[in-house]
Amino acid sequence: MLTVLPIRYVADVEASRHFYAGLGLIFRPDVSVDVWAQLAADAGAVGIHDATVSQGRPPGTTELGFTTDQRLEDIAERLARSGYDYDLVDENFGRSVRVTDPDGIVIQIQEINHVAVRSSAAATGGKPA
Question: Residue 98 and residue 76: Cα distance in Å, rounded?
Fold first, then answer.
C-alpha cells in the first residue's frame, strides 16, 4: 500500500514540528531524528526535513512523496510497463524510486529503513528528535 507523504523542507525542524502538531498532527518520535520529523494524520502524514541537509532543496519547498510497504522493484516494474522511466536510488534513509510526472515534477516513492535513518543522523552528528 502507498501512503501519501508530502515533504516540507524547512529552516527550523523543531519550530515546524510544533506548528504542525498544533494543527492536530501527531508527532512520531519513533521514526524521527533531529533533521527529520514525521507527523501523522488520520488520512496520511507530513514529513518535515531540515533544508540544510536536503541535497539542495531550499526552505519552503514541498515535494510530493509516498512511503510504501511494497517492494520497490514491483513498483518499478509497474512504471516500466506503463511506459515511465524511473531511477531506483539508494538513499541515506533507505531506497526510493524516482519518477517524473507529466508536468516534469519528480515524485519519490520511499522504502524507509528507520535503522538507516538513525545511523545516517548519528554519522552526521544528529540525534533522535
Answer: 9
